[in-house]
Amino acid sequence: MEVKILLSTYNGERFLKEFLESLSNQTYKDWALVVRDDGSRDSTLKIVEEFASSYFYRGKVSLLRDDGGTLGPCRSFLTLLQRAKGDYFFFADQDDVWLPNKIEKLLSRMIELEERYGRKTPMILHSDAVVVDQNLREIATSLWLYERLDPNRKTLNYILVQNNITGCCMVVNRALKTLLKEIPHRAVMHDWWLGLVASALGLIEYYPERLVLYRQHSGQNTGAKGYRVSVLLRRAFDWKGLIHSLERSLWQAREFLRIYGPYLSNEQHKLLHTFINLPKESFYSKLALVSKYRFYKSGLLKNLGFMVVLLLLREVADGSECLHCSV
User: Fold this and answer.
1) Is it the case that residue 231 has pLDDT exceeding 70?
2) In the prediction, which pLDDT does 232 show?
3) Which residues contact 160 (CB under 8 A, 6 or more apart)?
4) 138-140 and 123-132: which strand pairing?
């Protein structure tokens, strides 16, 4: 049984050693780390190489060197998954800290799921996390509560609208990895893309424990935003950002349909076509179709924002300017 940990790094010298230390402290020891650096200009690579050459981890760490250049986190992580060999694949963020039993608990549960549904069933298993600041002081006891994410919403109609899977909290099996047919250009983020694949062609399950310290700090490309009133108000009036966010989810859905269309059921085709073409519908048709197919986000305010932007949007740009977006 091969367990691979996939780590995409970029200028991560500040917190990378803490992550690697948490990896060293895992109760499950039979893992291998595969690292792809996305063009760091600091000492990130040196830190990785020192860790790889240490006595205890010699032979357990490999560096994926390619000519891909700076891909951004989404395509860098998916490149790692496509190139890695193994049975189970964990995704690691360079600035987080894993609790000691993370691998052991998720791996044990994933094996149970495969025994129930079969190893050929593509699967994602993901956990909750504790949100912490740069000094690992607790901000929120639960990432799911902090972001108002509902892990029970795991069918395709929900995942099209909102990602509720956090990459550093998930493990995927080999059956899901084999479905990565190509590296998409218009995927918003790797965890969201894999969530679409699993929701349509396999299954998504969640583990109801917090197994990661999810660090928030300045300089992050992604991260938890929280559900404070000030944050929600700032989002609510960022019309350009809200429109762009919806457009990107529509571009992503188009590319998903292009790549996986031959594997989808008639009902899934209809669902995707309906979602992709929502901006072209009339005011009342949009309301009716959102209700019929339950294109809902988690939380009243998020749904209100989504509906207002959708009702205002009449057409969607082709997204060519976002071919290499990283966030």
Assistant:
1) no
2) 53
3) 196, 249, 253, 271, 272, 275, 295
4) antiparallel
d(CA 316, CA 303): 20
92 phi and psi, to 5 degrees?
A: -120, 135
Question: Parallel, antiparallel, or unpaired: how do β-strands 97-98 and 170-173 relate?
Answer: unpaired
DSSP β-ladder status, 203-215 and 97-98:
antiparallel
Can you identify the CATH homologous superfamily of domain 3-215?
Spore Coat Polysaccharide Biosynthesis Protein SpsA; Chain A (3.90.550.10)
**Span 86-102, average pLDDT:** 98
Distances 133 to 59, 136, 220 between C-alpha atoms, Å:
33, 5, 12
144 versus 225: which is more confidently predicted? Answer: 144
Q: What is the dihedral of CA 70, 251, 260, 118, to 10 degrees?
A: 80
CB 237: neighbour CB atoms within 10 A?
9
Percent of the chain with pLDDT over 90: 81
**How much is the pTM?**
0.91
In single-letter form, the type of residue at position 67 comes to D
253: nearest Cα among 268, 243, 238, 266: 268
Q: What is the pLDDT of residue 219?
A: 58
- Averaged confidence pLDDT in the chain: 92
β-pairing, 170-173 with 123-132?
antiparallel
Q: Which residue is it, tokens 């179709």?
A: 289
111 vs 16, 30, 172, 175, 176, CA distance in Å?
Answer: 29, 15, 11, 13, 14
Residue spans of the domains in the chain: they are 3-215, 229-322
d(CA 246, CA 297): 12
Distance CA 45, CA 68 (A): 16
Amino acid (1-letter code) at residue 238? D
224 with 216: CB under 8 angstroms?
A: yes
